[in-house]
Amino acid sequence: MRGPNPSGRSHGPCLVALCWFLVFMSASVYMHSGNVFASEQIVAFDISRTEMSLAFTGVYVVGAFFAPVLGYLLDRYGARNVMLLASIWFAMGFLALTHIDSFLPFAVVLALFVGTGQSALGQRAASQLLVHHFDRRRGMALGIMITGASVAGIVTPPIAVYLLESMGWRDAYELFALIYLIFVLPLIAIIVRAHPRSAATVPASILEAYGTIVVTKTFWRAVLLFGLIEGVYVALNGHLFLHYTELGVDSYRAAAILSATSGAALLCKPITGWFIDRAGTARATLVVTTACAAAMGALAISSTYVPLLVSGVLLGFAFGGIIPLQATTLSRHFDTKEFGRAYGSLRLCTLPIAGGCVVFVGWLYEKTDSYVPSFVAFAVVFLLASGMKLMTSAPPLSRAASAGKTAFQ
After folding, report:
1. How much is the average pLDDT of 279-300?
2. CATH homologous superfamily of domain 11-193?
């Protein structure tokens, strides 16, 4: 009896559901529970909040530098093999964290295991799976997948509080390890099918493997564009609540604006994916950068609750589709056999730009005692980016490629 066809209609929804679950879990076990557990970890290790922040920074930096290596491994050995090993690695890390009693080993293990495991089992590896499986509806598939992170941001914090109060963070980490060993590992083994080996087309040397990517203008345009968008969004996340309260909005209403922004971003992800599939990456990029400029302008001129709420919703819609736009753009401009390397390189290369945006917002506030100049500056930059047309149209699908795809794909 023949097994399920990996490219068949029935396998596509299963793969999207699995990728959604992987992204949800990856965001839940660290990103949206780590800050909840940090309150008890600070007490357990007798450390300051600054030291705890350094541990979180270590995870981010390790993940950024590991991203190109991960991309190489995904292209050379396939997502299935990498994710199976990463499930065991990730679980080992959580189990190790439950037995550590001092801060320095905790921070090192957290960075090495979580910084790498989260990437290998989260959005980047899942994107690789969907890029290889989908073509005509690739943007929609990626948009649905990334909503897993948004849903995790909504439901995880109260669950993390319950786990912390009922069993403590060490037992919670042990639970996370068991979930990855008992549920995630078998799901990957059952649902993810091995694609034809591409090792023959991927040079054995990592430096040689990236040579054809880093010399292309398209890649550096993507670095500039997505580094700017991601940097602005990260910077604003750390300052918008302060901006709202400084304008006289009470804390609960300020939090409501942030929730509205998150809700709009959640709705925008599949919508952006749908739009990319129909309009193309160049037009989608133009719409996104123009919307970002409009959101910055709206924030700059708003000073009371209702206009700020509208601006927050516009902000969510503008920035919410960045992940499906990133992945789809790179997958259209680079061969699927080198997508992992291109996507992995993007994260590392955008790190300086994103970090610079965060520093810029804080520096300009200290100089002007207001966030409005930052909003105006970013609005101008986004308008220039939309006018420059940083991303050109991707090569169209061939008739042969389109004919071999199912309706869902």
Report:
1. 91
2. MFS general substrate transporter like domains (1.20.1250.20)
